[in-house]
Automatic annotation (TrEMBL), chain A:
Species of origin: Hemiselmis andersenii
PROSITE patterns, sorted: AA_TRANSFER_CLASS_1
Stored PANTHER family: ASPARTATE AMINOTRANSFERASE, ASPARTATE AMINOTRANSFERASE, MITOCHONDRIAL
Lineage: Eukaryota, Cryptophyceae, Cryptomonadales, Hemiselmidaceae, Hemiselmis
InterPro entries linked to this entry: Aminotransferase_I/II_large, Asp_trans, NHTrfase_class1_PyrdxlP-BS, PyrdxlP-dep_Trfase, PyrdxlP-dep_Trfase_major, PyrdxlP-dep_Trfase_small
Name the UniProt record assigns to this protein: Aspartate aminotransferase
Automatic annotation (TrEMBL), chain B:
GO biological process: amino acid metabolic process
This protein's UniProt keywords: Aminotransferase, Pyridoxal phosphate, Transferase
NCBIfam families: PRK09257.1 (NF006719)
Ligase in keyword set: no
Entry protein name: Aspartate aminotransferase
Organism superkingdom: Eukaryota
Enzymatic reactions: L-aspartate + 2-oxoglutarate = oxaloacetate + L-glutamate
Subunit: Homodimer.
UniProt record similarity statement: Belongs to the class-I pyridoxal-phosphate-dependent aminotransferase family.
Ranges for domain Aminotransferase class I/classII large: 44-417
């Protein structure tokens, strides 16, 4: 294209040089919240974004976080702390604690100083830094993400210039398609990257059993795969941080594998908007760690220079305080228990209404109760979701994923009734 | 039976270490100074490396207006931690563009400015770079002053753009305006020109209004994509409007489309909270809407959405008349202290008869004529090495002093050290 002529025609003061830029389509997940906000109906329900709500549908700032906020403010007012730049890798007290949360107190990798860790802007930031690192040092890898997965996975790895593919994950009945999964990973080229969900798979809520994780690990070893454990829901799934970390600790400790682990404290600490997380790279050899860390810093410097203070201070303050840490564990249990209760309530409400399962593939609605974590992958499809939204002001992503935190005793009957209406109107889900 | 880890460690299963080939990255020249400084145990050590303000006793400060804004946030029961929209905190976005474009801005009145919250200046530049890489035809070359902030080159290269330099300083530390204009005039049509709004980093030398006019002329002729890097607004003269002259001249008087990155690290003392913005002033509102959507598309796979705290603090101050007035006063105080330290350093150097750093200079007056946070002293890398080795004074090897690190109690020590390394060389 003739660059000069393009620019000559855009030289007129009225015409922007950016007039060829198109409007980006709304993000499928975030777009739901935007639409929800714009809705003026009093009974509207947001089952879109994965953010916890209490039983009155209100966001919950954890008590341990409120306390930490007070402590930090007091120190700032007293001149005991300042707002100086963090090092590129992040807030050291946070870094000293975060890896242990996921890898555990008994972690051999930590004891042997084989973990390179940097603070990140929650899970997204950690994944992007990991992706850029992989592009630099394993550029020929192919990145495998589950089908389905969190949509932003493909965008992140794509932005880093990496090729992405899918591996099968779910059967039609919403159970783990372990055979399809293993087959697809076995067909991957050597040195492929496997993006795995540590626990509470997003969006399906279906996790491998321990035996299934063992099968996956054998393929990962045979393929010399780069394993990335995306950890956004630790503590959220079972209410128990250690239990939820099983897959990571199995790969890192029992098998002694090199893995990458991204952490998000958005959900389990309720720190969504403070953007706090970490990227951990577990290596076989401690001497590699400073080199890896220096390159991670080299990625962060031209992206954001260094990360932000506040969220890191909050997490470090809680984890450094035994009382606050205990409170955090209790509040985690409250959140995950409420989700489990709502799963049961929704299933029961659907049964009470005589609502048919979404298709003949499902014997019942028990998949809602069997799935774990924040989301229910209901089996509803876009045609149902449209009715839920336009007729009933219930918002969720078009793949029928419900954020169960948005369900509460005050709206569960309405939701069940709306689901029945959607199925009655649009018919069962297509296979 | 033998565990997997044993088998793996014996190399019998080919899981293999993956990262043995990763080399140690070179130390960042600016950040490396702080690391070296922290490691130094000398009681005389002085940090003139990083551009962060220090008070007269050499201590970092938190602005009073920020402490008040903090208190309000901490005591507000309605504050939650929910995700921000991808573009950032709305009350922050509503005020930030006006800080740089001004109340009388035509671009703002006509809603032609796409703005997103960013992680300070670096974050804004990276988003701008990625946007340009995606949407500017033919992946243009990015022109960066020589010298400039080192990270400029890294940022644009990471976005897949080639960077080249334009002349900036003459040997006497004045602006080489003819060299600058010649280099920009030789650029291809549609190139990217990175300009420093005020208080050029590292030189402290800015174009005059007459020189800015000539720069605007060549930008227009070259249909350049103009980026104004604004890290020191209010810090140079103490006056936010005065420091914004270049941006407002280009945008309002010349009607040019431009990108403006803002950092609140220095002027709000919010270094570690990483708060800034990227503004893209477009010819029309419709384009601004589309541009904003694509900026969001860049943010989403980078970190999803930006962080709350810094944005709340800036918005909290700027939306409150009393706190805004407090901020303006504190800005004046900070910039005045820097100006005073420039005079003090030159006074001290003259008193002890310290010769200028090289034959290019007839005096130390460049230190007092430069503006902003930095003094580009003219010391050589070898001088700087000796300053560090012998006198525990840390600065970047290009002879750039962060004047905020100079205090009444250390200025003579610094002057004497400078005399020592210059006369010993």
């Amino acid at each position: 294209a003739d660059l000069r002529s393009t620019l000559v025609t855009t030289n007129s003061k009225k015409m922007s040089r950016w007039s060829h830029v198109t409007e980006a389509p709304p993000d499928p997940i975030l777009g739901v919240s935007v639409a929800f906000k714009a809705d003026t109906d009093a009974s509207k329900v947001n089952l879109g974004i994965g953010a916890y709500r209490d039983e009155n549908g209100k966001p919950w700032v954890l008590g341990c976080v409120k306390e930490a906020d007070k402590m930090i403010d007091a120190e700032l007012q007293a001149g005991k702390i300042d707002l100086e730049y963090l090092p590129v890798q992040g807030y050291q007290p946070f870094l000293d604690l975060t890896s242990e949360v996921i890898l555990g107190k008994e972690s051999k990798a930590l004891k042997e100083k084989r973990v390179a860790v940097v603070q990140s802007l929650s899970g997204t930031g950690a994944l992007r830094v990991a992706a850029e690192f992989i592009k630099m040092y394993a550029p020929n890898t192919v990145v495998y993400c589950s089908d389905p997965t969190w949509g932003n996975h493909f965008t992140i790895f794509g932005k880093a210039g990496l090729e992405t593919r899918k591996y099968r994950y779910l059967t039609k009945k919403m159970t783990l398609d372990i055979d399809g999964l293993l087959e697809d990973l076995k067909a991957a080229p050597e040195g492929a990257t496997f993006v795995l969900h540590t626990v509470a798979h997003n969006p399906s809520g279906v996790d491998p059993t321990q035996d299934q994780w063992k099968e996956i690990s054998k393929v990962a070893i045979a393929k010399k795969a780069i394993c990335i454990f995306d950890t956004a829901y630790q503590g959220y799934a079972s209410g128990n941080l250690d239990k939820d970390a099983w897959s990571v600790r199995y790969f890192a400790d029992e098998l002694g594998l090199e893995i990458m682990v991204t952490q998000s404290y958005s959900k389990n600490f309720g720190l969504y908007g403070e953007r706090i997380g970490a990227l951990n790279i577990v290596t076989s050899d401690a001497s590699t760690v400073p080199k890896i860390r220096s390159q991670l810093n080299g990625i962060i410097r031209p992206m954001i220079s260094n990360p932000q203070l506040h969220g890191a201070r909050l997490v470090a303050t809680v984890l450094n305080d035994a009382k606050l840490t205990k409170q955090w564990n209790e509040e985690l249990k409250i959140m995950s228990d409420r989700i489990v209760t709502m799963r049961t309530s929704l299933r029961d409400a659907l049964v009470k209404l005589g609502c048919q399962p979404p298709s003949t593939v499902f014997p019942d609605w028990n998949h809602i109760v069997d799935q774990i974590g924040m989301f229910a992958f209901t089996g509803l499809q876009a045609k149902h979701v449209d009715i839920l939204t336009t007729k009933h002001h219930i918002y969720c992503t078009k793949n029928g994923r419900f954020s169960m935190a948005g369900v509460n005793p005050g709206n569960v009957e309405k939701i069940a009734a709306a689901m029945k209406d959607a199925l009655d109107t649009a018919g069962p889900s297509d296979s | 039976s033998t565990s997997f880890s044993t088998i793996a460690m014996e190399g019998k299963v080919g899981w293999g270490p993956k990262w043995q080939h990763v080399p140690m990255a070179p130390v960042d020249p600016i950040l490396g100074v702080a690391v070296a400084y922290n490691a130094d145990s000398s009681p005389n050590k002085i940090n003139l490396g990083i551009g962060a303000y220090r008070d007269a006793s050499g201590k970092p400060i938190v602005l009073k207006c920020i402490k008040e804004a903090e208190k309000k946030i901490a005591n507000d029961p309605a504050m939650n931690k929910e995700y921000l929209p991808v573009q950032g905190l709305d009350p922050f976005l509503k005020v930030t563009s006006q800080v740089i474009f001004g109340k009388q801005s035509k671009a703002l009145a006509e809603k032609r400015v796409a703005v997103v919250q960013s992680l300070s200046g670096t974050g804004a530049l990276r988003i701008a770079a990625e946007f340009i890489s995606m949407y500017a035809p033919g992946k243009p070359c990015v022109y960066i002053s020589n010298p400039s902030w080192g990270n400029h080159h890294n940022i644009f290269r990471k976005a897949g753009l080639k960077t080249v330099t334009y002349r900036y300083l003459n040997p006497q530390m004045g602006l080489d305006i003819e060299g600058m204009l010649a280099d920009l005039a030789a650029a291809a049509i549609g190139s990217v020109f990175v300009l420093h709004t005020v208080a050029h980093n590292p030189t402290g030398v800015d174009p005059t209004p007459e020189q800015w006019k000539r720069v605007a002329d060549v930008c227009e002729k070259k249909r350049a994509i103009i980026i104004f890097d604004t890290a020191y607004q209010g810090y140079a003269t103490g006056d936010l409007d005065k420091d914004a002259y270049a941006v407002r001249y280009f945008s309002d008087e010349r009607g040019l489309e431009l990108m403006v990155t803002q950092s609140y690290s220095k002027n709000f003392g919010l270094y570690g909270e990483r708060i800034g913005a990227l503004n893209v002033a477009c010819a029309d509102e419709e384009t601004a809407v589309k541009v904003r959507s694509q900026l969001n598309g860049i943010v989403r796979p980078m970190y999803s959405n930006p962080q709350l705290h810094g944005a709340r603090l800036v918005a909290g101050v700027l939306s409150d008349e009393r706190l805004s007035a407090m901020w303006q006063q504190e800005l004046t105080d900070m910039s005045q202290r820097i100006v005073d330290m420039r005079s003090a350093l030159v006074g001290s150097l003259n008193r002890i008869g310290c010769p200028p750093p090289s034959a290019k200079f007839s005096s130390w007056n460049h230190i007092t004529s430069q503006i902003g946070m930095f003094a580009f002293t003219g010391l050589s890398p070898q001088h700087c090495d000796q300053l560090t080795k012998k006198h525990h004074i840390y600065c970047t090897r290009n002879g750039r002093f962060s004047m905020a690190g100079v205090t009444p109690s250390n200025v003579d020590y610094v002057a004497n050290a400078m005399k020592d390394v210059i006369t010993s060389a």
